Amino acid sequence: MRFMTLYKSGRESDTPPSPEEMAKVGRLIEEMTRAGVLLSTDGLQPSSKGARVRISEGKLSVVDGPFAETKELISGYAIVEARSKEHAIELTKRFLEVMGEGESEVRLMHEAPAFDSASPPQTGEAKERRKAAPAGR
Questions:
Q1: How many CB atoms are closer than 10 A to CB 32?
Q2: Rounded to two decimals, what is the model's pTM?
Q3: Between 3.30.70.1060, 3.40.50.970, 3.30.565.10, 3.55.30.10, what CATH number should domain 2-111 receive?
Q4: Region of poorest pLDDT, from 36-40, 57-61, 64-68
Q5: Over the stretch 25-34, which tens digit does the pLDDT of each residue have?
Q6: Can you tell me the mean pLDDT for 78-102?
Q7: Residue 11: is its pLDDT beyond 90?
Q8: Dist. CA 65–CA 67, nearest whole Å
Q9: Greater confidence, 93 or 22?
Q10: Is the terminal CB of the chain with fewer CB neighbours within 10 Å at N or C?
Q11: Which positions ≥6 away from 100 have C-beta within 8 Å?
Q12: Cβ–Cβ under 8 Å, residues 54 and 60
């Protein structure tokens, strides 16, 4: 079963982890990758480089970062292959122990990915263009 964990650092600021924290996390990532339980992981840049896009009552709004509540910001994610929800929680606890603070939300993913990232979904128009294109293009 695939689970996504969303990590919130719990820090008051939008600062990245220290080199020591990154080294510890790097070792854990290597270990979990070798064990075959870590499928994907990455951190996110500070919220000052992002935006929030919202729709309410049919109206879209965009608010550029940084955002005030930095303790609630998602700082990174991991996708793990776990035997059960309890196993996914144990893997997440190991990560949090390395980080020393923060929280993670653990969410079960659907069995099959929504699409194969090697061949993104095509709209009807894009499919027709591909069919009409000469071979080798």
A1: 19
A2: 0.76
A3: 3.30.70.1060
A4: 64-68
A5: 999 999 999 9
A6: 95
A7: no
A8: 5
A9: 93
A10: C
A11: 21
A12: yes
For the record, the structure tokens of 125 come out as 């128009």
State the Cα–Cα distance between residues 77 and 130, nearest whole angstrom. 34
Residue for token digits 């699409």?
A: 115
Any bridge partners for residue 58, and if so which? none
Dist. CA 78–CA 44, nearest whole Å: 11
- Torsion sign across C-alpha atoms 10, 12, 18, 20: negative
Q: Where are the domains of the chain?
A: 2-111
Q: Which residues 6+ apart lie within 8 Å of 130 measured at CB? A: 122
The overall average pLDDT reported for the chain is: 85
Is the model's pLDDT at 35 over the cut of 90?
yes
Task: Say how far apart CA 38 and CA 47 lie, in whole Å.
Answer: 25
Upstream peptide bond of 121 is cis (omega within 30 degrees of 0): no
